[in-house]
Amino acid sequence: MPISFAGRSRKDEPGIVAYLTAGDPGLAETRDIALAAIDNGADVIELGVPFSDPLADGPVIQRASERAVARGVRLVDVLGIAKELRAARPSAGLVIFSYLNPLLRIGLKNFCERAADAGADGVLATDMIVEESAEYLAHMHANSLAPIFLAAPTSPDARLKKIAEVSQGFIYAISRVGITGTQDKVAGDASELVARLRQFTKLPVAVGFGISNAEHVAQVAEFADAAVIGSAIVELIERSNPEAAPGAVARFIKGLHLSETVLAP
């Protein structure tokens, strides 16, 4: 089942997926920031599980993950935040975003049961290889969790087809090859990748990696269903005092919606 992007203010706007590194600057702050993001237009919250070796992430998210790990934030703590968010905002989309290692550490079956109990809609395990995902998918399906996979511009059509066949919720299209981080513009590969995915799925397609402002969101709106914003939000949190971070993120998310923003011609 698709994860809904119905919270967007106009039908011609993409949904907004907001990534947060859970536990940075603290667990309570992450909860408050997530609530502020939801209340100001984020359709889906990706709760990032901090990891000691986040190789796919750029320096901004690496620093946030390192700070959270240093505070002792663990997967179980992230699931605790998820449970609080589900209780507070029952209709919001909620995705656990993690490297595979923390999931394996507590066991895939145990993790999926606990993620479902916490109210998560889906899971994105960044380094889960679709060709080796049978056990993972079995536990996800048994707990009514949507498996979300990354699709890259370098993937051949046969692999995109396989990703489309096993994905639920939405498909995360990587706009460019490399690590996460803000960029000046949306990579040209993104629209081509989304068009290729459309051959194989009717699921929503969200575009991420480098989406960081309203202009980028407007570009994504032309060809995809949602924009994923990660590093720009995490960097804003890094620059803000903890007590001011929810308000700063609220203003940022609100400004991403095209109906709230007048873009330069």
What is the helix content? Answer: 40-55%
Unreliable stretches = 178-183, 261-265
How much is the average pLDDT?
90
H-E string: EHEHHEHHEHEEHEHEHEHH
Task: Please tell me how large the radius of gyration is.
Answer: 17 Å
Number of helices: 11
For the termini, the CA-CA separation is 38 Å
> Strand-residue fraction?
5-15%
Classification by helices and strands: alpha/beta
Notes on the structure:
The chain has 265 residues and is of the alpha/beta class. Helix content is 43%, strand content 15%. The chain is built from eleven helices and nine strands. A nine-stranded parallel sheet has the order 5-4-3-2-1-9-8-7-6. Helix 8 links the parallel strand 7 and strand 8. Helix 1 runs parallel beside helix 3. The radius of gyration is 17 Å and the shape is globular. The termini are far apart.
